[in-house]
Specification:
Length: 330
């Protein structure tokens, strides 16, 4: 019996030692990755202006997947998908998470409930390749079953593929700021090293509304509000009219995209014991105030109710609640 106890004791010590080594390795990798990101940004050099790149007359953003819904009958989850209508162009931005691998997925269910047809979609825009934006782990998917998407372009910030259920769309990797159509562009991928997710590049839509200015539509905001605003100022002469979407501010509570586990606060470029703080929320607010937008809407999928309340107080009548089924019209 004593021998068994000793074996168990040494096994526990060995496992603990391996965990300590793995954690230390993750911290080292974090610092190496952050240094690489700084070098990547420095080597990119000055950005070429996109302005003038045209404008659209009408723009709306309809959340199809997020953490809160505007009414009963719509499904919610800690993921993101937005239907963006810019004049005659319909963009599906991100694909939610579909954690239960359902068909229809929460995204497809909400599309059907809101009268959105897959055949109406002109392009897919993927902000970044995290599973809560790509329809789950693996290839991009709208649902865990066939969805009638035609041979439309899929703009992603890195190599990826479509599921066998959606074989027709074709992926184009976007490596820099790009104009898709007159008035419709993207900021280009911005890199960041995250403690859990590693090297992450995230893109955001930028749509110029005639007589108003640039509307920035953001997936998760891993780039940080500061870098998003900085990039927009570098690319466009037009003012920033609106910022809509996620900024990853899970202060005093997160959404737990992995069920009972809440790992949102660890997906930062800091050690986990530091995480996202109240000061980060204030810094994001101050960065956004620099461009004086007329509309601000913060996604609840990756920001806490506390953070949302800070944004509501800061922007007052300019703030809009972002909920599934509630269309934001510019």
């Amino acid at each position: 019996m004593n021998r068994v106890k000793k074996v168990i004791k040494w096994m526990a010590i060995a496992i603990l030692g391996l965990l300590v080594l793995a954690f230390a390795g993750a911290l080292v990798q974090l610092e190496i990755g952050k240094r690489a990101v700084r070098q990547e940004l420095a080597q990119a050099g000055p950005l070429k202006k996109l302005s003038p790149f045209g404008a659209v007359r009408k723009l709306s953003v309809l959340p199809l997947v997020d953490f809160y819904a505007d009414r009963e009958g719509l499904k919610t989850e800690a993921g993101v998908s937005y239907l963006v209508k810019a004049d005659e162009t319909t963009i599906l931005m991100d694909l939610g998470v579909n954690r239960k691998k359902e068909h229809p997925s929460p995204l497809l269910h909400n599309m059907q409930a809101l009268g959105v047809k897959a055949s109406d979609i002109d392009m897919l825009f993927i902000s970044h390749l995290h599973f809560d934006h790509t329809g789950g782990f693996g290839p991009l998917r709208v649902s865990a079953g066939p969805v009638a998407l035609g041979p439309i372009p899929v703009y992603a910030p890195g190599p990826t593929s479509l599921s066998p259920w959606n074989p027709e769309p074709r992926v184009e990797v976007v490596k820099e700021p790009k104009v898709f159509k007159p008035g419709i562009a993207c900021l280009g991928p911005i890199p960041r090293q995250l403690f859990l997710a590693g090297h992450t590049v995230e893109n955001a839509l930028a749509i110029n509304v005639e007589g108003k200015g640039i509307v920035l539509i953001v997936g998760c905001g891993h780039q940080t509000a500061e870098r998003i605003v900085e990039r927009a100022r570098a690319l466009f002469d037009e003012p920033v009219y609106a910022i809509v979407g996620g900024l990853h501010l899970p202060v005093h509570g997160g959404r737990g995209v992995l069920g009972p586990l809440n790992l949102q606060g660890l997906a930062t470029d800091r050690p986990p014991w530091r995480g996202v703080t109240e000061a980060d929320v204030q810094a994001a607010i101050e960065a956004i105030k620099q461009v004086s937008p007329s509309v601000v809407a913060l996604s609840p999928h990756d920001s806490s109710d506390w953070s949302i309340e800070q944004f509501r107080r800061a922007f007052q009548n300019r703030y809009r609640d972002l909920k599934v089924g509630r269309e934001i019209v510019m």
